[in-house]
Amino acid sequence: MDDDVRARAEEAAEVNALFNALKHDSDAQVGAIMGPLMGENPDFREYGDEIAGVIAPVVQRVNGMNAAEQRERLAELAPERVEELEREDEEDDQVLPDLPNADDYDQIRMRLAPNPNGPWHLGSARMPAVIGTYKDIYDGWMLCRFDDTDPETKRPDLDAYDAILDAIDYLGFEPDEVVKASDRVEIYYDHARELIDLGGAYTCSCPGGDFSELKNSGEPCPHRDKDTETVREEFEAMVDGEYSAGEMVLRVKTDIEHKNPALRDFVAFRMVDTPHPREEAAAYRCWPMLDFQSGVDDHLLGITHIIRGIDLQDSAKKQRFVYDYFGWEYPEVVHWGHVQIDAYDVPMSTSTIIEKIEAGELTGWDDPRAPTIASVRRRGIRGEAVVDAMVELGTSSSNVDLAMSSVYANNRDLVDEETDRAFLVRDAGPDAPGAVELPVEGGPDAGHPPVHPNHEDRGRRTIAVEDAVILESSDLPAAGERVWLKGFGCVRYEDDTLVSTDDDLDVVREGAVDVVHWVPAETSLSTRLRTMDGDVTGYAEPGIGEYGPDDLVQFERVGFARIDAVGDRDDGSDGGTDGESADPSEREEVVAYYAHP
User: Which of 290, 302, 578, 595 is most buried (most C-beta within 10 Å)?
Assistant: First the structure.
Protein backbone atom coordinates (compact mmCIF):
# COMPACT_ATOMS: atom_id res chain seq x y z
CA MET A 1 0.00 0.00 0.00
CA ASP A 2 1.57 3.30 -1.08
CA ASP A 3 1.58 6.42 1.09
CA ASP A 4 -1.26 8.11 -0.81
CA VAL A 5 -3.64 5.16 -0.31
CA ARG A 6 -2.62 4.88 3.34
CA ALA A 7 -3.28 8.59 3.95
CA ARG A 8 -6.69 8.44 2.26
CA ALA A 9 -7.59 5.29 4.20
CA GLU A 10 -6.62 6.90 7.48
CA GLU A 11 -8.70 10.02 6.76
CA ALA A 12 -11.73 8.03 5.56
CA ALA A 13 -11.41 5.76 8.60
CA GLU A 14 -11.28 8.75 10.93
CA VAL A 15 -14.43 10.26 9.41
CA ASN A 16 -16.32 6.97 9.67
CA ALA A 17 -15.07 6.29 13.18
CA LEU A 18 -16.05 9.78 14.37
CA PHE A 19 -19.49 9.46 12.80
CA ASN A 20 -19.98 5.96 14.24
CA ALA A 21 -18.95 6.99 17.75
CA LEU A 22 -21.17 10.08 17.79
CA LYS A 23 -24.17 8.32 16.28
CA HIS A 24 -24.15 5.49 18.78
CA ASP A 25 -22.73 7.45 21.73
CA SER A 26 -20.16 4.72 22.31
CA ASP A 27 -16.73 3.62 21.19
CA ALA A 28 -16.31 3.05 17.46
CA GLN A 29 -15.48 -0.49 16.41
CA VAL A 30 -13.10 -1.45 13.61
CA GLY A 31 -15.51 -4.06 12.30
CA ALA A 32 -18.42 -1.62 12.23
CA ILE A 33 -16.62 0.89 10.00
CA MET A 34 -14.88 -1.55 7.65
CA GLY A 35 -18.01 -2.15 5.57
CA PRO A 36 -18.89 1.53 4.94
CA LEU A 37 -15.21 2.32 4.34
CA MET A 38 -14.85 -0.32 1.62
CA GLY A 39 -18.23 0.51 0.12
CA GLU A 40 -17.39 4.20 -0.25
CA ASN A 41 -13.84 3.49 -1.53
CA PRO A 42 -13.81 0.50 -3.92
CA ASP A 43 -10.12 1.04 -4.68
CA PHE A 44 -9.29 0.04 -1.08
CA ARG A 45 -10.56 -3.49 -1.60
CA GLU A 46 -7.32 -4.81 -3.09
CA TYR A 47 -5.65 -3.84 0.18
CA GLY A 48 -8.25 -5.60 2.33
CA ASP A 49 -5.70 -7.54 4.33
CA GLU A 50 -3.85 -4.34 5.25
CA ILE A 51 -6.71 -1.90 5.80
CA ALA A 52 -7.70 -3.22 9.22
CA GLY A 53 -4.16 -2.67 10.50
CA VAL A 54 -4.17 0.86 9.13
CA ILE A 55 -7.46 1.94 10.65
CA ALA A 56 -7.12 0.24 14.07
CA PRO A 57 -4.87 2.97 15.55
CA VAL A 58 -7.16 5.62 14.01
CA VAL A 59 -10.15 4.11 15.77
CA GLN A 60 -8.22 3.92 19.02
CA ARG A 61 -7.34 7.60 18.75
CA VAL A 62 -10.98 8.56 18.05
CA ASN A 63 -12.17 6.57 21.05
CA GLY A 64 -9.75 8.53 23.22
CA MET A 65 -11.61 11.79 22.48
CA ASN A 66 -14.67 13.03 24.33
CA ALA A 67 -17.89 13.70 22.39
CA ALA A 68 -17.24 17.43 22.00
CA GLU A 69 -13.78 16.79 20.59
CA GLN A 70 -15.16 14.14 18.23
CA ARG A 71 -17.86 16.49 16.90
CA GLU A 72 -15.34 19.35 16.44
CA ARG A 73 -12.94 17.09 14.55
CA LEU A 74 -15.72 15.69 12.34
CA ALA A 75 -16.79 19.25 11.51
CA GLU A 76 -13.24 19.93 10.31
CA LEU A 77 -13.01 16.81 8.15
CA ALA A 78 -16.58 16.39 6.89
CA PRO A 79 -19.09 19.06 7.95
CA GLU A 80 -21.79 17.39 5.86
CA ARG A 81 -21.60 14.35 8.14
CA VAL A 82 -22.27 16.57 11.17
CA GLU A 83 -25.39 17.86 9.40
CA GLU A 84 -26.39 14.24 8.75
CA LEU A 85 -26.06 13.50 12.46
CA GLU A 86 -28.21 16.51 13.33
CA ARG A 87 -30.92 15.42 10.89
CA GLU A 88 -30.93 11.93 12.38
CA ASP A 89 -31.11 13.39 15.89
CA GLU A 90 -34.18 15.42 14.90
CA GLU A 91 -35.84 12.34 13.39
CA ASP A 92 -35.05 10.30 16.48
CA ASP A 93 -36.46 12.98 18.77
CA GLN A 94 -39.87 12.90 17.05
CA VAL A 95 -41.13 9.37 17.50
CA LEU A 96 -44.75 10.31 16.77
CA PRO A 97 -46.03 11.23 13.30
CA ASP A 98 -47.15 14.79 12.66
CA LEU A 99 -50.77 15.50 13.52
CA PRO A 100 -52.94 15.97 10.43
CA ASN A 101 -53.23 19.57 9.23
CA ALA A 102 -51.59 20.85 12.41
CA ASP A 103 -50.48 24.06 10.67
CA ASP A 104 -54.13 25.01 10.06
CA TYR A 105 -54.73 25.65 13.77
CA ASP A 106 -53.52 28.47 16.00
CA GLN A 107 -53.43 26.03 18.93
CA ILE A 108 -53.54 22.25 19.03
CA ARG A 109 -56.26 21.28 21.52
CA MET A 110 -56.68 17.63 22.45
CA ARG A 111 -58.63 15.73 25.07
CA LEU A 112 -58.43 12.72 27.30
CA ALA A 113 -61.90 11.26 27.73
CA PRO A 114 -61.77 8.60 30.45
CA ASN A 115 -64.82 6.76 31.72
CA PRO A 116 -64.37 6.80 35.51
CA ASN A 117 -65.84 3.35 36.08
CA GLY A 118 -62.60 2.31 37.78
CA PRO A 119 -58.92 3.21 38.07
CA TRP A 120 -56.86 2.83 34.90
CA HIS A 121 -55.42 -0.40 33.60
CA LEU A 122 -52.11 -0.22 31.77
CA GLY A 123 -53.67 0.12 28.33
CA SER A 124 -55.29 3.35 29.49
CA ALA A 125 -51.84 4.90 29.83
CA ARG A 126 -51.46 5.05 26.07
CA MET A 127 -53.91 7.95 25.69
CA PRO A 128 -52.28 10.40 28.12
CA ALA A 129 -48.81 9.24 27.04
CA VAL A 130 -49.42 10.06 23.40
CA ILE A 131 -51.69 13.08 23.81
CA GLY A 132 -49.47 14.53 26.53
CA THR A 133 -46.46 14.09 24.26
CA TYR A 134 -48.26 15.78 21.38
CA LYS A 135 -49.14 18.63 23.74
CA ASP A 136 -45.43 19.05 24.50
CA ILE A 137 -44.44 18.83 20.83
CA TYR A 138 -46.93 21.46 19.69
CA ASP A 139 -47.03 23.52 22.87
CA GLY A 140 -50.72 22.69 22.85
CA TRP A 141 -53.63 22.37 25.27
CA MET A 142 -55.00 19.22 26.90
CA LEU A 143 -58.39 18.59 28.46
CA CYS A 144 -59.36 15.77 30.78
CA ARG A 145 -63.09 15.23 30.33
CA PHE A 146 -64.70 12.50 32.39
CA ASP A 147 -67.32 10.88 30.16
CA ASP A 148 -69.55 9.81 33.04
CA THR A 149 -73.02 9.95 31.50
CA ASP A 150 -73.75 6.24 31.90
CA PRO A 151 -74.91 5.75 35.50
CA GLU A 152 -75.80 2.11 34.95
CA THR A 153 -73.84 0.01 32.44
CA LYS A 154 -70.50 1.72 33.07
CA ARG A 155 -71.39 3.10 36.45
CA PRO A 156 -68.86 5.68 37.67
CA ASP A 157 -66.70 4.83 40.66
CA LEU A 158 -66.50 7.90 42.89
CA ASP A 159 -62.90 7.09 43.80
CA ALA A 160 -61.86 6.72 40.17
CA TYR A 161 -61.99 10.43 39.34
CA ASP A 162 -59.10 11.28 41.65
CA ALA A 163 -57.34 7.99 40.89
CA ILE A 164 -57.29 8.80 37.18
CA LEU A 165 -56.02 12.35 37.75
CA ASP A 166 -53.36 10.88 40.02
CA ALA A 167 -52.38 8.43 37.27
CA ILE A 168 -52.05 11.26 34.74
CA ASP A 169 -49.77 13.06 37.18
CA TYR A 170 -47.71 9.89 37.70
CA LEU A 171 -47.24 9.66 33.93
CA GLY A 172 -45.83 13.19 33.98
CA PHE A 173 -48.67 15.30 32.57
CA GLU A 174 -51.13 17.88 33.83
CA PRO A 175 -54.41 18.68 32.08
CA ASP A 176 -55.05 22.34 31.34
CA GLU A 177 -58.69 21.84 32.29
CA VAL A 178 -60.74 19.09 33.93
CA VAL A 179 -64.49 18.73 33.41
CA LYS A 180 -67.11 16.14 34.27
CA ALA A 181 -69.74 15.47 31.62
CA SER A 182 -72.28 14.81 34.39
CA ASP A 183 -71.94 18.50 35.33
CA ARG A 184 -72.92 19.53 31.79
CA VAL A 185 -76.26 17.75 31.31
CA GLU A 186 -78.20 21.00 30.91
CA ILE A 187 -75.86 21.95 28.05
CA TYR A 188 -76.69 18.71 26.28
CA TYR A 189 -80.40 19.30 26.84
CA ASP A 190 -80.14 22.74 25.22
CA HIS A 191 -78.43 21.30 22.16
CA ALA A 192 -81.00 18.54 21.92
CA ARG A 193 -83.74 21.17 21.91
CA GLU A 194 -81.92 23.06 19.17
CA LEU A 195 -81.50 19.87 17.16
CA ILE A 196 -85.22 19.14 17.50
CA ASP A 197 -86.06 22.64 16.23
CA LEU A 198 -83.74 22.02 13.26
CA GLY A 199 -85.71 18.90 12.40
CA GLY A 200 -82.76 16.70 13.22
CA ALA A 201 -84.20 14.60 16.06
CA TYR A 202 -87.40 12.84 17.05
CA THR A 203 -88.75 10.98 20.05
CA CYS A 204 -89.32 7.25 19.63
CA SER A 205 -91.19 4.82 21.85
CA CYS A 206 -90.64 1.73 19.71
CA PRO A 207 -89.49 -1.33 21.63
CA GLY A 208 -85.82 -1.91 20.92
CA GLY A 209 -86.38 -5.11 19.00
CA ASP A 210 -89.03 -3.53 16.78
CA PHE A 211 -86.82 -0.59 15.88
CA SER A 212 -83.91 -2.93 15.08
CA GLU A 213 -86.04 -4.80 12.59
CA LEU A 214 -87.12 -1.56 10.92
CA LYS A 215 -83.57 -0.19 10.94
CA ASN A 216 -82.04 -3.32 9.49
CA SER A 217 -84.59 -3.40 6.69
CA GLY A 218 -84.09 0.30 5.96
CA GLU A 219 -87.64 1.23 6.91
CA PRO A 220 -88.47 4.40 8.85
CA CYS A 221 -89.78 4.37 12.38
CA PRO A 222 -93.49 5.37 12.54
CA HIS A 223 -92.52 8.19 14.90
CA ARG A 224 -90.00 9.69 12.48
CA ASP A 225 -92.35 12.29 11.05
CA LYS A 226 -93.80 13.62 14.31
CA ASP A 227 -94.32 17.35 14.33
CA THR A 228 -91.66 19.39 16.08
CA GLU A 229 -93.98 20.53 18.86
CA THR A 230 -94.85 16.97 19.84
CA VAL A 231 -91.20 15.93 19.78
CA ARG A 232 -90.31 18.92 21.93
CA GLU A 233 -93.07 18.11 24.46
CA GLU A 234 -92.07 14.47 24.70
CA PHE A 235 -88.41 15.35 25.11
CA GLU A 236 -89.29 17.74 27.95
CA ALA A 237 -91.21 14.88 29.54
CA MET A 238 -88.03 12.80 29.28
CA VAL A 239 -86.07 15.59 30.94
CA ASP A 240 -88.68 15.78 33.71
CA GLY A 241 -88.32 12.04 34.33
CA GLU A 242 -91.87 11.14 33.28
CA TYR A 243 -90.74 8.01 31.44
CA SER A 244 -88.98 4.89 32.71
CA ALA A 245 -86.01 3.16 31.13
CA GLY A 246 -86.91 1.78 27.69
CA GLU A 247 -90.12 3.78 27.29
CA MET A 248 -88.80 6.68 25.24
CA VAL A 249 -85.59 7.73 23.45
CA LEU A 250 -84.56 10.71 21.36
CA ARG A 251 -83.08 9.73 18.01
CA VAL A 252 -80.91 11.72 15.61
CA LYS A 253 -82.52 11.72 12.17
CA THR A 254 -79.88 10.50 9.69
CA ASP A 255 -80.31 8.39 6.54
CA ILE A 256 -82.61 5.45 7.21
CA GLU A 257 -81.20 3.74 4.12
CA HIS A 258 -77.55 4.36 4.97
CA LYS A 259 -75.35 1.44 3.91
CA ASN A 260 -74.20 1.07 7.53
CA PRO A 261 -77.24 0.14 9.68
CA ALA A 262 -75.41 1.36 12.81
CA LEU A 263 -75.67 4.93 11.51
CA ARG A 264 -79.42 4.84 10.85
CA ASP A 265 -81.31 7.12 13.26
CA PHE A 266 -79.11 6.43 16.27
CA VAL A 267 -80.10 7.19 19.87
CA ALA A 268 -78.99 10.52 21.34
CA PHE A 269 -80.80 10.38 24.73
CA ARG A 270 -82.33 7.55 26.77
CA MET A 271 -83.94 7.10 30.15
CA VAL A 272 -81.95 5.55 33.02
CA ASP A 273 -83.72 4.60 36.24
CA THR A 274 -80.52 4.12 38.25
CA PRO A 275 -79.42 7.37 39.94
CA HIS A 276 -75.95 8.68 39.18
CA PRO A 277 -73.55 8.07 42.10
CA ARG A 278 -72.49 11.72 42.15
CA GLU A 279 -74.84 13.69 44.37
CA GLU A 280 -74.71 16.63 41.97
CA ALA A 281 -76.07 14.47 39.13
CA ALA A 282 -78.31 12.03 41.01
CA ALA A 283 -81.57 13.77 40.06
CA TYR A 284 -81.15 13.30 36.29
CA ARG A 285 -82.94 10.42 34.55
CA CYS A 286 -82.59 11.52 30.93
CA TRP A 287 -79.00 10.93 29.90
CA PRO A 288 -77.17 11.60 26.62
CA MET A 289 -75.48 8.77 24.78
CA LEU A 290 -71.72 9.09 24.56
CA ASP A 291 -71.65 9.90 20.83
CA PHE A 292 -73.94 12.90 21.31
CA GLN A 293 -72.38 14.13 24.56
CA SER A 294 -68.81 13.74 23.33
CA GLY A 295 -69.54 15.35 19.96
CA VAL A 296 -71.12 18.42 21.56
CA ASP A 297 -68.31 18.76 24.09
CA ASP A 298 -65.56 18.43 21.49
CA HIS A 299 -67.02 21.39 19.62
CA LEU A 300 -67.83 23.59 22.59
CA LEU A 301 -64.44 22.99 24.21
CA GLY A 302 -62.55 23.71 20.99
CA ILE A 303 -60.96 20.31 20.40
CA THR A 304 -58.92 20.32 17.18
CA HIS A 305 -57.62 16.73 17.15
CA ILE A 306 -59.16 13.52 18.45
CA ILE A 307 -57.26 10.27 18.92
CA ARG A 308 -59.53 7.29 19.41
CA GLY A 309 -59.64 3.54 18.85
CA ILE A 310 -60.27 2.24 15.36
CA ASP A 311 -63.35 0.46 16.73
CA LEU A 312 -64.90 3.91 17.23
CA GLN A 313 -64.90 4.87 13.54
CA ASP A 314 -68.70 4.78 13.58
CA SER A 315 -68.69 7.34 16.41
CA ALA A 316 -67.02 9.90 14.16
CA LYS A 317 -69.55 9.18 11.41
CA LYS A 318 -72.49 9.55 13.81
CA GLN A 319 -71.16 12.78 15.21
CA ARG A 320 -70.70 14.23 11.73
CA PHE A 321 -74.48 14.05 11.25
CA VAL A 322 -74.94 16.18 14.38
CA TYR A 323 -72.17 18.57 13.29
CA ASP A 324 -73.83 18.99 9.88
CA TYR A 325 -77.12 19.98 11.51
CA PHE A 326 -75.38 22.62 13.63
CA GLY A 327 -73.04 23.79 10.87
CA TRP A 328 -69.92 22.90 12.85
CA GLU A 329 -66.54 21.80 11.51
CA TYR A 330 -65.52 18.36 12.68
CA PRO A 331 -62.10 17.97 14.38
CA GLU A 332 -59.22 16.07 12.84
CA VAL A 333 -59.34 12.39 13.81
CA VAL A 334 -56.61 9.79 14.20
CA HIS A 335 -57.81 6.22 14.68
CA TRP A 336 -55.40 3.75 16.21
CA GLY A 337 -55.46 0.03 16.85
CA HIS A 338 -55.73 -1.66 20.21
CA VAL A 339 -52.69 -2.23 22.39
CA GLN A 340 -52.09 -5.62 23.97
CA ILE A 341 -49.62 -6.08 26.80
CA ASP A 342 -47.77 -9.29 27.57
CA ALA A 343 -46.58 -10.71 30.90
CA TYR A 344 -49.98 -10.72 32.64
CA ASP A 345 -52.41 -13.58 33.24
CA VAL A 346 -55.19 -11.18 34.23
CA PRO A 347 -56.98 -9.62 31.22
CA MET A 348 -56.57 -5.89 30.72
CA SER A 349 -60.24 -5.18 31.43
CA THR A 350 -61.64 -2.85 34.09
CA SER A 351 -64.68 -5.04 34.71
CA THR A 352 -62.59 -8.22 34.96
CA ILE A 353 -60.13 -6.62 37.39
CA ILE A 354 -63.03 -5.42 39.54
CA GLU A 355 -64.51 -8.93 39.57
CA LYS A 356 -61.20 -10.47 40.62
CA ILE A 357 -60.74 -7.92 43.40
CA GLU A 358 -64.26 -8.54 44.68
CA ALA A 359 -63.66 -12.31 44.53
CA GLY A 360 -60.45 -11.98 46.54
CA GLU A 361 -58.28 -13.19 43.64
CA LEU A 362 -56.44 -9.85 43.66
CA THR A 363 -55.70 -7.81 46.76
CA GLY A 364 -56.52 -4.54 44.99
CA TRP A 365 -55.75 -2.40 41.97
CA ASP A 366 -52.09 -2.25 43.04
CA ASP A 367 -51.66 -6.01 43.33
CA PRO A 368 -48.45 -6.80 41.37
CA ARG A 369 -50.40 -9.38 39.35
CA ALA A 370 -52.86 -6.74 38.11
CA PRO A 371 -52.15 -5.06 34.72
CA THR A 372 -52.80 -1.61 36.13
CA ILE A 373 -51.06 1.72 36.50
CA ALA A 374 -51.42 1.49 40.28
CA SER A 375 -49.60 -1.85 40.19
CA VAL A 376 -46.54 -0.77 38.17
CA ARG A 377 -46.35 2.39 40.24
CA ARG A 378 -46.27 0.43 43.49
CA ARG A 379 -43.59 -1.80 42.03
CA GLY A 380 -41.32 1.23 41.63
CA ILE A 381 -41.63 1.70 37.87
CA ARG A 382 -41.53 5.34 36.88
CA GLY A 383 -44.28 6.87 34.79
CA GLU A 384 -41.72 8.10 32.28
CA ALA A 385 -40.74 4.50 31.51
CA VAL A 386 -44.36 3.64 30.70
CA VAL A 387 -44.84 6.79 28.62
CA ASP A 388 -41.72 6.19 26.53
CA ALA A 389 -42.78 2.61 25.79
CA MET A 390 -46.30 3.69 24.80
CA VAL A 391 -45.09 6.55 22.62
CA GLU A 392 -42.73 4.19 20.79
CA LEU A 393 -45.81 2.26 19.61
CA GLY A 394 -46.88 5.29 17.57
CA THR A 395 -50.43 5.76 16.30
CA SER A 396 -50.75 2.92 13.80
CA SER A 397 -54.26 1.81 12.94
CA SER A 398 -53.08 -1.79 13.34
CA ASN A 399 -53.22 -3.52 16.69
CA VAL A 400 -49.89 -3.33 18.51
CA ASP A 401 -48.19 -5.34 21.22
CA LEU A 402 -46.34 -3.79 24.12
CA ALA A 403 -43.71 -5.98 25.72
CA MET A 404 -43.27 -5.18 29.40
CA SER A 405 -39.58 -5.83 28.82
CA SER A 406 -39.45 -2.49 26.99
CA VAL A 407 -40.98 -0.74 30.02
CA TYR A 408 -38.45 -2.49 32.25
CA ALA A 409 -35.55 -1.49 30.00
CA ASN A 410 -36.70 2.14 30.04
CA ASN A 411 -37.04 2.10 33.81
CA ARG A 412 -33.66 0.46 34.27
CA ASP A 413 -32.08 3.30 32.29
CA LEU A 414 -33.82 5.82 34.54
CA VAL A 415 -33.02 4.30 37.93
CA ASP A 416 -29.91 2.16 37.65
CA GLU A 417 -27.28 4.79 38.38
CA GLU A 418 -29.05 6.22 41.43
CA THR A 419 -30.24 2.97 43.01
CA ASP A 420 -28.33 1.48 45.94
CA ARG A 421 -27.45 -2.22 45.98
CA ALA A 422 -28.36 -4.69 48.71
CA PHE A 423 -28.36 -8.43 49.36
CA LEU A 424 -31.51 -10.56 49.52
CA VAL A 425 -31.36 -14.30 50.12
CA ARG A 426 -34.54 -15.95 48.81
CA ASP A 427 -35.92 -18.84 50.80
CA ALA A 428 -39.46 -19.68 49.69
CA GLY A 429 -41.89 -18.77 46.92
CA PRO A 430 -42.03 -19.01 43.11
CA ASP A 431 -38.64 -20.10 41.78
CA ALA A 432 -36.96 -19.32 45.12
CA PRO A 433 -33.91 -21.59 45.51
CA GLY A 434 -34.26 -22.02 49.27
CA ALA A 435 -31.79 -20.87 51.91
CA VAL A 436 -29.19 -22.51 54.11
CA GLU A 437 -27.57 -21.19 57.29
CA LEU A 438 -23.91 -21.98 57.90
CA PRO A 439 -21.33 -20.97 60.51
CA VAL A 440 -18.32 -18.97 59.37
CA GLU A 441 -14.78 -19.49 60.67
CA GLY A 442 -12.06 -16.87 60.26
CA GLY A 443 -12.02 -13.87 57.99
CA PRO A 444 -12.93 -10.27 58.77
CA ASP A 445 -15.64 -9.26 61.22
CA ALA A 446 -17.72 -7.67 58.48
CA GLY A 447 -18.23 -7.57 54.74
CA HIS A 448 -17.96 -4.30 52.85
CA PRO A 449 -19.65 -4.52 49.44
CA PRO A 450 -20.04 -1.22 47.53
CA VAL A 451 -23.23 0.82 47.79
CA HIS A 452 -23.07 1.07 43.98
CA PRO A 453 -20.49 -0.72 41.82
CA ASN A 454 -20.13 2.28 39.46
CA HIS A 455 -19.86 4.93 42.17
CA GLU A 456 -17.11 4.19 44.64
CA ASP A 457 -17.56 7.70 46.04
CA ARG A 458 -20.89 6.61 47.55
CA GLY A 459 -19.04 4.35 49.93
CA ARG A 460 -19.46 0.78 51.07
CA ARG A 461 -22.01 -1.05 53.17
CA THR A 462 -20.88 -2.63 56.42
CA ILE A 463 -22.47 -6.02 57.06
CA ALA A 464 -21.35 -7.64 60.31
CA VAL A 465 -20.72 -11.34 59.76
CA GLU A 466 -21.07 -12.43 63.39
CA ASP A 467 -21.06 -16.24 63.68
CA ALA A 468 -23.09 -17.46 60.72
CA VAL A 469 -24.44 -16.40 57.32
CA ILE A 470 -27.40 -17.39 55.16
CA LEU A 471 -26.87 -18.31 51.51
CA GLU A 472 -29.23 -19.35 48.76
CA SER A 473 -28.92 -23.12 48.60
CA SER A 474 -28.09 -23.04 44.90
CA ASP A 475 -24.99 -20.96 45.74
CA LEU A 476 -23.59 -23.48 48.17
CA PRO A 477 -20.47 -25.08 46.66
CA ALA A 478 -19.69 -28.77 46.75
CA ALA A 479 -17.85 -30.04 49.80
CA GLY A 480 -14.23 -28.91 49.70
CA GLU A 481 -14.91 -26.26 47.06
CA ARG A 482 -14.62 -22.49 47.44
CA VAL A 483 -17.03 -19.60 46.90
CA TRP A 484 -16.54 -15.84 47.17
CA LEU A 485 -18.88 -14.03 49.57
CA LYS A 486 -19.22 -10.67 47.90
CA GLY A 487 -17.65 -7.89 49.96
CA PHE A 488 -16.28 -10.41 52.47
CA GLY A 489 -13.86 -12.77 50.77
CA CYS A 490 -13.20 -16.35 49.81
CA VAL A 491 -14.46 -19.28 51.90
CA ARG A 492 -14.20 -23.05 51.56
CA TYR A 493 -17.14 -25.33 52.36
CA GLU A 494 -15.85 -27.91 54.88
CA ASP A 495 -17.84 -30.00 57.36
CA ASP A 496 -20.98 -27.84 57.04
CA THR A 497 -18.89 -24.74 57.77
CA LEU A 498 -17.62 -21.90 55.62
CA VAL A 499 -13.92 -21.53 56.39
CA SER A 500 -12.21 -18.31 55.31
CA THR A 501 -9.19 -18.74 53.01
CA ASP A 502 -6.27 -16.49 52.11
CA ASP A 503 -7.27 -16.24 48.43
CA ASP A 504 -7.41 -12.77 46.92
CA LEU A 505 -9.56 -11.36 44.10
CA ASP A 506 -7.40 -13.07 41.50
CA VAL A 507 -9.44 -16.23 42.02
CA VAL A 508 -12.53 -14.29 40.96
CA ARG A 509 -10.81 -12.63 38.02
CA GLU A 510 -9.55 -16.02 36.85
CA GLY A 511 -13.05 -17.51 37.13
CA ALA A 512 -11.90 -20.04 39.71
CA VAL A 513 -14.76 -19.30 42.13
CA ASP A 514 -18.31 -17.99 41.91
CA VAL A 515 -19.32 -14.73 43.57
CA VAL A 516 -22.48 -15.02 45.69
CA HIS A 517 -24.55 -12.79 47.95
CA TRP A 518 -25.27 -13.54 51.57
CA VAL A 519 -26.75 -12.08 54.77
CA PRO A 520 -25.85 -12.46 58.45
CA ALA A 521 -27.98 -15.08 60.18
CA GLU A 522 -28.68 -13.16 63.39
CA THR A 523 -29.40 -9.63 62.21
CA SER A 524 -30.83 -10.13 58.72
CA LEU A 525 -34.33 -8.79 58.19
CA SER A 526 -37.09 -11.16 57.27
CA THR A 527 -38.40 -9.91 53.94
CA ARG A 528 -41.43 -10.52 51.75
CA LEU A 529 -40.91 -9.70 48.07
CA ARG A 530 -44.22 -9.32 46.26
CA THR A 531 -43.93 -10.36 42.59
CA MET A 532 -46.21 -10.92 39.60
CA ASP A 533 -45.92 -14.67 40.21
CA GLY A 534 -46.61 -14.60 43.94
CA ASP A 535 -44.80 -13.70 47.12
CA VAL A 536 -41.17 -14.66 47.70
CA THR A 537 -39.89 -14.71 51.28
CA GLY A 538 -36.32 -14.48 52.41
CA TYR A 539 -33.78 -12.43 54.36
CA ALA A 540 -32.32 -9.01 53.54
CA GLU A 541 -29.15 -7.46 54.88
CA PRO A 542 -29.76 -5.31 58.00
CA GLY A 543 -29.13 -2.03 56.19
CA ILE A 544 -32.46 -2.39 54.40
CA GLY A 545 -34.08 -1.29 57.64
CA GLU A 546 -32.68 2.19 57.04
CA TYR A 547 -34.74 2.64 53.88
CA GLY A 548 -38.25 4.02 53.89
CA PRO A 549 -41.36 3.37 51.82
CA ASP A 550 -40.92 4.35 48.15
CA ASP A 551 -37.14 3.92 48.24
CA LEU A 552 -35.84 1.79 45.41
CA VAL A 553 -33.06 -0.75 45.84
CA GLN A 554 -31.48 -3.34 43.61
CA PHE A 555 -31.25 -6.70 45.29
CA GLU A 556 -28.10 -8.01 43.68
CA ARG A 557 -28.64 -10.92 41.29
CA VAL A 558 -32.40 -10.62 41.93
CA GLY A 559 -33.57 -7.28 40.59
CA PHE A 560 -34.94 -3.84 41.39
CA ALA A 561 -37.59 -3.52 44.09
CA ARG A 562 -39.48 -0.74 45.79
CA ILE A 563 -39.52 -0.80 49.58
CA ASP A 564 -43.18 -0.73 50.59
CA ALA A 565 -43.06 -1.09 54.37
CA VAL A 566 -40.35 -1.42 57.00
CA GLY A 567 -41.37 -2.75 60.42
CA ASP A 568 -40.18 -1.16 63.66
CA ARG A 569 -37.51 -3.30 65.28
CA ASP A 570 -37.69 -4.06 68.98
CA ASP A 571 -34.68 -2.79 70.95
CA GLY A 572 -34.36 -6.09 72.82
CA SER A 573 -31.08 -7.94 72.49
CA ASP A 574 -32.74 -10.85 70.70
CA GLY A 575 -33.50 -8.70 67.63
CA GLY A 576 -37.06 -9.96 67.25
CA THR A 577 -40.01 -7.80 66.26
CA ASP A 578 -41.88 -8.65 69.45
CA GLY A 579 -38.93 -9.22 71.81
CA GLU A 580 -39.51 -12.99 71.78
CA SER A 581 -37.55 -14.46 68.89
CA ALA A 582 -34.15 -13.92 67.28
CA ASP A 583 -34.96 -16.48 64.54
CA PRO A 584 -35.19 -14.48 61.27
CA SER A 585 -37.77 -16.91 59.92
CA GLU A 586 -40.15 -15.78 62.66
CA ARG A 587 -39.87 -12.03 62.18
CA GLU A 588 -41.31 -10.20 59.16
CA GLU A 589 -39.65 -6.83 58.95
CA VAL A 590 -39.72 -5.67 55.33
CA VAL A 591 -42.22 -5.78 52.47
CA ALA A 592 -40.89 -4.92 49.02
CA TYR A 593 -42.48 -4.95 45.56
CA TYR A 594 -40.44 -6.47 42.74
CA ALA A 595 -40.05 -4.14 39.76
CA HIS A 596 -37.97 -6.04 37.21
CA PRO A 597 -34.53 -7.60 36.68
Answer: 595
